[in-house]
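pasting for ref
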Amino acid sequence: MAGHSKWANIQHRKGRQDEKRGRIWTRIIREIVVAARQGGGDLAMNPRLRLAVDKAKAANMPADTIKKNVDKATGALEGVNYEEVRYEGYGIGGAAVIVDCMTDNRVRTVAEVRHAFSKYGGNLGTEGSVAFQFKHCGQFVFAPGTPEDKVMEAALEAGADDVIADDEGAIEVLSDPLAFEPVKQALEAAGFKPEVAEVTMRAENSIELSGDDAARMQKLLDVLEDLDDTQAVFHNAELAGLGALQ
């Protein structure tokens, strides 16, 4: 979203996540379980698991809890079978919304997602209905004041695709998902610590909403994010006074 204030958007999103801190462990544990089941329990050979474990450590999850859930996923302990499922739909003003879930009961999950969309002014769409409006990529965001030229040098040498400065001077680095780990390591080795480092679905274009429409859209997003099976919600709405959450 070049030209918009990525920094304001990120700060707003982080603030709302802090309000829901108690839910973060549950989501991280599900991500660890699925990542370990799909790619094995060796961090060196499983980038997705390594990223999930990094998130767990950042959220102060005990090492024993991390290990227990990796063991569950790899068969060392009995655990719950989660599967990944993605729902796509439309919010207020036709804003595109993606809801990524992990569930042990698809029937329950789709009913809850559909109910949230319909009750709060959106519509659940079909597979592929909005995903084309997003790019699956690695994303790193640095605070205003970070030297753009040095970040750019380190990022591009490590294989990043693009480096973008927003209106407030924050810097966003984008990479292919497979290049996320080497770019992350190169940036950290150069002394740059991102405020955000994740593999995400980044909206290619945004829809601006304000007033009652912005408030209604935020309510829909909050309800979707609060569903027990939700892992992440991505959208392309830029909410006046709030910022565009991704």
